[in-house]
Amino acid sequence: MSGRVSLAGKADWLGEKHLQRLLAALADGGEEARVAGGAVRNALIGQPVADVDIATTTVPDETIRRAEAAGFKAVPTGIEHGTITIVAGGKPFEVTTLRADIETDGRRAKVSFGRDWKADAERRDFTINALYAEADGTIVDLVGGVADIEARRLRFIGDPEARIREDYLRILRFFRFFAWYGDGRPDAEGLKACARLKEGLGQLSVERVWSELKKLLSAPDPSRALLWMRQASVLTSVLPETEKWGIDAIHALTRAEKDLGWTPDPLLRLEAIVPPDAARLKTLAERLRFSVSDAGRLRQWALTAPVEPKTTEAELAKRLYRGDHQGLVDRLRLSLASARGRAVEDNDALLEAGGFSRLLAFAGKWKKPDFPLKGADLTTLGASPGPKLGATLKNLENEWVESGFALDRGALLERAAEALES
To answer: Where is the Poly A polymerase head domain (predicted)?
Structure first.
């Protein structure tokens, strides 16, 4: 990336006509507009670009006027901070006026608008996030971000402590971006600053904390970042459940995901580093305000008993029918990953891995069968609605499950008639 750096050939999205029209409209009459931040970073690294943000010298009201004059829709989503969402060609673009922080409290900042690109770059968190691209793809690097991308080095802009005191979320972002883009050891000064200022994490909303953790746990391999978070005592600050439990299982899990083609799953990875204690996980989910779905999945995993590798498919089918399918799949995946990790030096673990692999394949294909009887079938036989009918139906369902789902409707009706006569 030496010399004149450009996105030419690296960013087909930059040539999209609506984006080019928007950049041209914002840059008319002596103003300037550039693509900023993550889109530039990802294009240089060769990773997908999901969102395209734009920085401009036009003030918010002028941004709106120009966008609407060009035929685009403008929504003042964060106008007090200079951000307008422009919908162009059906795609949203966040357009933000160049800014400088005039006051921060560790969570929010008061800003002033300006025209200084270097001041705008220096208010950002990391060098790799402070790159700009002109409409023709030319990179504007005012903080050394291109060299850091080349080295896969994550570095705060300026003094790490100053950056963190502006927004303590940057502690978690340091480890999250390291997980996604870093290599080797984290920047030493940044790591020390995160360790020294970790108490500031208590000022953050729990929603922001979990959002960052979930993004970190979604990285291709978060294990190194989690290790350094633990070393800096940041991990136990936000996830005290990991204390005295450990994160060693995450290494085997990420290797299994890569080898077996599993999609990285942040909830499964969380399960790998916390104890299967339903009460503690309920507290965790409430503290970080998990969605009902995520909280339920954690709870069911904790309540699901481990599966032995010698379990037969027939035995597993009964458990799948009576229990939580996702909880069992999570148990099997974590057990398989652990066994694979130990199999390098342990022949017994190799056999266990084969058993878990077999059971996981079965669970992936298993479809829950429908119980052939309903309450109406028993009332047809003369049963009266009430507790006895419900108990009889439940007993019959248990017999059907224990038969390996082999009893057909006729056989079940015969048993029902006998039960009702007794």
So the answer is: 33-155
Reported as a single tens digit per residue, the pLDDT across 21-42 is 999 999 999 999 999 999 999 9
Q: What is the pLDDT of residues 356-373, one digit of tens each?
A: 999 999 999 999 999 999
Q: Give, in order, the Cα–Cα distances in Å from 420 to each of 180, 384, 395.
A: 63, 10, 12
Residue with tokens 């940041």, as numbered in its chain: 234
- 21 and 134 share one domain: yes
Q: Evaluate whether residue 212 is within a structural domain.
A: yes
Q: Considering the domain boundaries, does residue 276 fall inside one?
A: no
12's CB contacts (< 8 A; 6+ apart) are none
The angle formed by the CA atoms of residues 254, 259 and 261, to the nearest 5 degrees, is 90
Q: What is the predicted pLDDT for the residue at 2?
A: 41
Q: Is 154 exposed, middle or buried (0-12, 13-18, 19+ CB in 10 A)?
A: buried
Neighbours of 274 (CB within 10 A): 20
In whole angstroms, how far apart are CA 59 and each of 64, 81, 382, 391? 9, 10, 79, 71
- Residue 282 within a domain: no
Q: HSE (CB half, 13 Å, CA atoms) of 267?
A: 19
- State yes or no: pLDDT of 106 exceeds 60: no
Of the pLDDT bands very low, low, confident and very high (cuts 50, 70, 90), residue 108 is: low
146 with 131: CB under 8 angstroms? yes
